[in-house]
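queue> pop job 88
queue> type: inverse folding (structure -> sequence)
queue> payload:
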């Protein structure tokens, strides 16, 4: 059924909400809540009604319910103050009060092809036939569905719809056609001794090809903690793989693209692998193209602002003040429109760091991880900010949490860098060398990674290797061939940080042969 109100069209059969011709992205539970309110607009809907319809009778907190109602209001341009369309009756419930027209949905789909990031998470199979694991399997499926729906531009089939397939034989290509999705996530779990082993696959629904698969082990002694830790790693890895796969599909099918949403997906796919200045600039160029086509694009503002901040932080910028000023303007404009964007908050936190506004950097990055608890990069950036505040002890558990969220073997120079810096400042030379080597192995072309390893080796007294590594660093960035030139670029850090660095990093670099001037 189609329901029309103001300039919105709600299609309950296809589970789509459009504003004019634009398909809007929203969490499955928020869609279910909005649809229930619209369908039952002739009455005030109670809390129990919503729990029965949207959450399948599960008990959720008042704050969760309020969050979903506020999210439904935001997506249709309403608010708790205005209550133009969704009105709260204290003590009774909520009601949709907008004027609605309804008609039968057309037989043919509105979209000729599925959205680029369209996904269904199939119910995880419990292969051990263990009733205790059934709740664990359902919880992973439910939460993973919600987490993937947070990816900008994603379209995720609702949990209730996906659970109609539980226990059934699956033909991935048929599911892709029937549900209108490009990607299928399926998984299973079984007991493996004292642990629970999860297998997860990402499948291309058009070809049936496996795009990614991995195995995760969890200790079920503390089910809630095990579910949160495993879910964080799966959600983050899947999110990156989905964006990467969608970006490749777009390039293959439409190499010269003018669709802003497709371009944003391509931009983030490139950004996620930006291990050099050239790749980062390629990602920024895609975001700039989006801004040309769609001057009001919030996603493009976040992408450009983030790229500019990374450019400065990685010592790649040749126009530092201009880059910082433009990033400031674009990111603040984005946050005015979407204050709950974890990506925008993380980008602003990084910008505040290189502006030496470190307390504000910490606040923004703490907000980013609160908004998106699986955002590994935000943890690494927060750890680095804590280091620059002169708090390396506090940085270590934060950096370790971010490291636990990455896939085994995934290149994570930023995580290793943060932990290496913290240990170096604390005089833990062996640990500093270990993390510095991992950071350098992940990406040997970053100047600061090489200088950190050279400093740690210099402190330990392994001077031949320290000099060789420092020579590699200076070869990468000849303009930073002295401590004075390095200090002139890196203007961020608290007095406490600089004092710690003088006693450790600077001593090590001098021993490795870096001159003062």
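queue> result:
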């Amino acid at each position: 059924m189609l329901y029309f109100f103001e300039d919105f069209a709600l299609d309950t059969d296809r589970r789509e909400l459009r504003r004019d011709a634009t398909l809007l992205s929203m969490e499955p539970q928020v869609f279910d809540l909005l649809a229930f309110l619209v369908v039952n607009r002739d009455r005030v809907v109670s809390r129990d009604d919503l729990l029965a319809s949207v959450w399948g009778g599960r008990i959720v907190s008042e704050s969760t319910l309020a969050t979903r109602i506020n999210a439904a209001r935001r997506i249709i341009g309403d608010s708790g103050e205005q209550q133009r369309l969704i009105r709260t009756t204290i003590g009774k419930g909520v009601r949709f009060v907008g004027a609605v027209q309804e008609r039968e949905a057309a037989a043919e789909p509105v979209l000729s092809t599925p959205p680029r990031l369209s996904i269904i998470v199939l119910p995880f199979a419990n292969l051990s036939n263990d009733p205790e694991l059934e709740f664990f399997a359902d919880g992973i499926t439910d939460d993973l569905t919600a987490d993937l729906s947070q990816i900008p531009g994603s379209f995720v089939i609702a949990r209730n719809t996906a659970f109609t397939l539980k226990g059934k034989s699956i033909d991935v290509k048929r599911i892709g056609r029937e549900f209108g999705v490009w990607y299928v996530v399926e998984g299973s779990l079984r007991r493996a001794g004292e642990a629970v082993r999860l297998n997860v696959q990402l499948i291309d629904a058009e070809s049936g090809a496996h795009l990614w698969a991995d195995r995760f082990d969890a200790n079920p002694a503390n089910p809630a903690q095990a579910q949160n830790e495993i879910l964080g790693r799966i959600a983050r890895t899947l999110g990156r793989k989905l964006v990467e796969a969608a970006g490749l599909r777009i390039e293959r099918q439409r190499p010269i693209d003018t669709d802003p949403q497709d371009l944003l997906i391509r931009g983030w796919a490139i950004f996620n692998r930006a291990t050099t200045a050239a790749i980062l600039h390629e990602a920024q160029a895609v975001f700039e193209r989006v801004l040309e086509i769609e001057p009001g694009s919030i996603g493009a503002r976040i992408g450009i602002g983030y790229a500019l901040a990374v450019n400065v932080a990685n010592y790649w910028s040749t126009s530092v003040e201009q880059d910082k000023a433009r990033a400031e303007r674009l990111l603040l404009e984005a946050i005015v429109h979407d204050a709950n964007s974890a990506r925008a908050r993380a980008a602003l936190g990084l910008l505040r760091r290189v502006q030496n506004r470190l307390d504000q950097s910490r606040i923004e990055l703490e907000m980013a991880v609160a908004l998106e608890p699986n955002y590994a990069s935000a943890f690494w950036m927060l750890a680095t900010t804590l280091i620059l505040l002169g708090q390396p002890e506090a940085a270590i558990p934060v950096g370790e949490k971010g490291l636990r969220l990455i896939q085994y073997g995934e290149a994570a120079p930023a995580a290793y860098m943060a932990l290496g810096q913290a240990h170096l400042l604390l005089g833990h030379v062996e640990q500093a060398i270990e993390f510095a080597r991992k950071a350098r192995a992940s990406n040997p072309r970053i100047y600061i990674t090489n200088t950190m390893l050279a400093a740690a080796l210099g402190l330990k007294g392994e001077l031949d290797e320290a000099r060789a590594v420092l020579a590699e660093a200076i070869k990468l960035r000849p303009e930073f061939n002295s401590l004075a030139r390095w200090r002139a670029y890196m203007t961020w850090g608290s007095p406490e940080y600089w004092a710690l660095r003088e006693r450790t990093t600077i001593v090590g670099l001098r021993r490795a042969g870096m001159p003062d001037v």
